[in-house]
Amino acid sequence: MSEHETAQPVLAVVGRPNVGKSTLVNRLIGRREAVVEDVPGVTRDRVTYDAVWRGRRFTVVDTGGWDPDAVGLQVAVSAQAEIAVAAADAVLFVVDNVVGATDADEAVVKVLRRAKKPVVLAANKVDDERGEADAAALWSLGLGQPYVVSALHGRGSGDLLDAVLDALPETPAERFEAEQGPRRVALLGRPNVGKSSLLNRLSGEHRVLVDSVAGTTRDPVDSLVEVGGEIWKFIDTAGLRRRVSHASGAEYYSSLRTQSALDAAEVAVVLLDASEPISEQDQRIIGMVAESGRALVIAFNKWDLVDEDRRPQLAKEIDRELARVQWAPRLNVSALTGRAVDKLAPALHTALDGWETRIPTAKLNAWISDLLAQTPPPVRGGKQPKVLFATQASIRPPRFVLFTSGFLEAGYRRFIERRLREDFGFAGTPVEVSVRVREKKSKS
């Protein structure tokens, strides 16, 4: 396992297009995160989610529809599914029980056998007892018992999750992470701040490929774009007008898809209109990125419309409204004129480098000891808490855990975060510092 990842087993969910993989993923993780539509091909990349069942944590990887005879874009989608299987500890193979096993399913089974990974077979869309009888035919695939389930209604999901846990190891098999494909960038902002214009400016004559998700213009649009001499995958999303809970109809689903695009990204570029005051919705979008744990770059567009009187006012707004994300790289750009768009790639790299920074445990503990010696934590309840041990639990984003003899005040945790940034960088990324207080041993 890469040192970049936490010790959590990985389950890859694979199957032909439109067999209900994303609906089943939502059922497995217990929340509606994977985008679901009653058309094939909505999911095209590997998207990861955290899941918990019977107190055990594991990672679920949702993949695009796997078609061994794929052509065109579907070839890349199928390749992503193969990569997911190679990196997983176990595989959940989903078959449409209504259609039954197809030639494509048989071909996928051959690939799964070569992968030599534990496989759990899910017969999806089983809504009644008659469907259970039909599922018996899936024994012919040679993958063992088909677990009947209705992803839409939840029928049989508990038994399926039990089988998944049995297939997953307590700790994942060692594997070495090889980053596949371009880095993923979500382009976010209010409506009409110039997101699509910036994307078109970046693309210019160097656009490699543009794939729009079928449907309305409210859908995210994925574009492979050459920026700074390398290929990036940009997801141009619908403008967010209000909170998801306050949206309705098409706007509600647009908001869900924008959140999904953010979840699938590694870094977000939040575009603000420099010619207008920073709004509450601008701050909400930035907060959504920080809460999602993604790297962040803030770009002020329409800089060509900012006059000399506006610039001092904008500087004050930034200090006041964006104080909580002072760590995010900022750019002043113009999608119309092309001003400073060449600086976007370095800013993205700065944010991603911070997002993936890891401090060795020995170095971190030496640093925290020096920090506490210089500035001890406040006394609480007549006692001064001590930090017994510190570790960086994960990256992407960096998360630190302090094992202490007593509770550390929120203000002191913010102080530690600030000093971490001063001494180690972490530009462009949220940083989380949590505390675990050592439980006192009861006297026997």
Strand order of the largest sheet: 8-9-10-7-11-12-13
Bin the helical content.
Answer: 25-40%
Secondary-structure-derived class: alpha/beta
The proportion of strand residues reads: 15-25%
* Alpha carbon gyration radius: 24 Å
Instruction: Name the shape in a single word.
Output: globular
Unreliable segments (pLDDT under 50, ≥5 consecutive)? 1-6, 34-45, 173-179, 205-220, 240-251
Query: How many beta strands in the DSSP annotation?
Result: 16
What separation lies between the terminal Cα atoms? 41 Å
What would the average pLDDT be, to the nearest integer? 80
Describe the model.
By secondary structure, the chain is an alpha/beta fold. The chain is 33% helix and 22% strand. It has twelve helices and 16 strands. Strands 8-9-10-7-11-12-13 form a seven-stranded mixed β-sheet, with helices on both faces. A six-stranded mixed β-sheet has the order 2-3-1-4-5-6, sandwiched between helices. Strands 14-15-16 form a three-stranded mixed β-sheet, with helices on one face. The longest helix is centred in the middle third of the chain and has 16 residues, at 249-264. It is globular and about 70 Å long. The model is unreliable at 1-6, 34-45, 173-179, 205-220 and 240-251 (pLDDT under 50).
Short description:
With 444 residues, the chain is α/β, with parallel strands linked by helices. The protein has helices spanning 21-29, 73-87, 103-115, 129-135, 157-167, 195-203, 249-264, 280-292, 310-321, 344-355, 361-374, 410-424, and strands at residues 10-15, 47-53, 56-62, 90-96, 119-124, 146-148, 183-188, 209-212, 221-227, 230-236, 267-273, 295-301, 330-332, 387-394, 399-404, 432-437.
